[in-house]
Design brief:
The complex is a heterodimer of chains A (71) and B (335).
Chain A (H helix, E strand, L loop, with lengths): L2 E5 L7 E2 L8 E2 H6 L2 H9 L3 E2 L23
Antiparallel strand pairs in A: 1-3, 1-4
Chain B lengths: L7 E6 L12 E2 L3 E12 L13 E15 L5 H8 L17 E6 L10 E7 L3 E19 L7 E8 L3 E3 L7 E2 L10 E5 L14 E8 L3 E4 L13 E4 L5 E7 L4 H8 L2 E9 L12 E18 L3 E10 L10 E6 L5
Antiparallel strand pairs in B: 1-2, 1-6, 3-4, 4-8, 5-19, 6-7, 7-8, 7-9, 7-12, 11-16, 12-15, 13-14, 15-18, 16-17, 17-18, 17-19
The chains are: A alpha+beta (71), B mainly beta (335).
């Protein structure tokens, strides 16, 4: 079953849309929502049409450059 | 057909009174409804007939709304802006807190700054109505009865402009209600305002109810041929808050205060569970009042014990510049 809208938890500070689960919505689930809730999902920052990018792992720290020798 | 279970009840605080705001910003997790009303007045009665009503015309239009149910510490700041003091849009952070936020509402004394709201009500599969200029005119009442199994209750209501039929607006992001438990209520009573919150009254409070009036009036003015027949302005009359406290009669400590006719600085705090926000901080709604205990009434508890109920009439306190302060602690940084 294809995903119609992806849930972006990074945008959620504790809210929800009444009647809409806080997870990815399948196309079937999205189609079953009443029109005003479809509009609400599309207007909400909690849901998006494309899959959120996974957080990139922190880059490994670079080794310290050797100090210049004093001649 | 319209399903009660599908009804939406939402609102948005208006930036300008009477200018509708769309879409709504808050879900009302309370029982209640909004309805339209009008008055049609008859002119001269039909002559020669037993009917006392001739041709009638609509002379006034308005809406009425009400809300009641379990008090929600996340929603109380919205009601605080509408019923106690307006323009309170940012809380403070209590000392030692990370997530907890404290909203403070000293009742407005010298300015009518209470907020109006645009209300949305109806089953979206049938019809929704939008009512602008909704203002609180029924008292804001918060009640906790430790002898019952109900949560702390809130009730209020008022009037609004005649509602227009609108397409269903986009739904606001809701926040899970944080309800309060009567059995966790704190009460303090002290003689001086400066000592408020020092002396806890324990082991005897059965119930507490705080009533905050707005004194709201609605004014209908001539608007010209294109007028809406709704109210044009609102005003406020004088009023004062009250608290009703029911105690189990363990001794005459509270009765002696009434008999001595002395003032009481009272703080009542309606709590959620301990540490419900973070360690050391829980959701609550609290009221400070100062006045005299009046009108003692005998009651009973569980049919076995005598209770006494007092009404505390809230006096104006010069040091506060108001007669009641409502505070709400939650974890919300914005309304």
């Amino acid at each position: 079953m294809s995903i119609a809208r992806y849930y972006d938890s990074s945008k959620n500070s504790g809210g929800f849309l009444v009647g809409v689960p806080l997870r990815d919505l399948t196309q079937e689930e999205y189609d079953e929502l009443p029109p005003y809730l479809q509009q609400s999902v599309d207007a909400s920052p909690l849901y998006r049409r494309t899959k959120p990018q996974a957080a990139k792992p922190a880059a490994a720290p670079k080794p310290d450059a050797p100090a210049d020798e004093v001649k | 057909m319209a399903e009660i279970s599908a009804e939406r009840y939402e609102l948005a605080i208006e930036a300008t009174r009477g200018t509708a705001v769309t879409p709504p910003t808050h879900v009302v997790f309370l029982d209640g409804s909004v309805s339209n009303h009008s008055t049609s007045t008859s002119g001269q009665p039909a002559r020669g007939l037993l009917s006392d009503r001739g041709v009638s015309k609509r002379v006034r239009k308005w809406g009425e709304w009400d809300m009641s149910g379990a008090a929600d510490a996340n929603f109380m700041p919205v009601l605080g802006n509408m019923a106690v003091k307006g323009n309170v849009t940012s809380p403070t952070t209590p000392v030692g807190a990370t997530d907890a936020r404290l909203w403070t509402f000293p009742r407005a004394m010298t300015a009518d700054n209470l907020e109006s709201a645009t209300l949305y009500f109806g089953d979206p599969s049938v019809q929704m109505w939008q009512h602008a200029y909704a203002m609180v005119s029924d008292d804001l009442v918060v009640t906790a009865d430790a002898s019952s199994e109900e949560l702390v209750q809130v009730a209020t209501g008022g009037m609004a402009q005649f509602g227009a039929q609108v397409a269903s607006p986009t739904a606001p992001t809701a926040v899970t209600p944080e309800t309060l438990i009567p059995g966790l209520t704190d009460l303090w009573m002290d003689a001086a305002v400066g000592d408020i919150g020092d002396t806890a009254i324990t082991g005897r409070l059965v119930s507490a109810e705080v009533t905050v009036p707005t004194g709201r009036t609605y004014k209908y003015l001539a608007q010209g041929a294109a007028g809406t027949l709704g109210y044009s302005n609102t005003g406020r009359t004088r009023s004062h808050p009250t608290a009703t406290l029911q105690f189990e009669l363990l001794d005459t400590a509270q009765y002696d205060i009434f008999e001595a006719d002395t003032e009481v600085a009272m703080r009542v705090r309606f709590n959620a569970e301990d540490d419900s926000i973070e360690t050391g901080f829980n959701h609550y709604v609290e009221f400070d009042l100062y006045g005299k205990l009046t009108e003692p009434e005998w009651g009973e508890l569980e049919g076995s014990n005598r209770t006494v109920t007092f009404t505390l009439e809230g006096d104006y306190v010069a040091g506060w510049s108001t007669d009641i302060i409502m505070r709400v602690q939650n974890a919300k940084a914005a309304l």
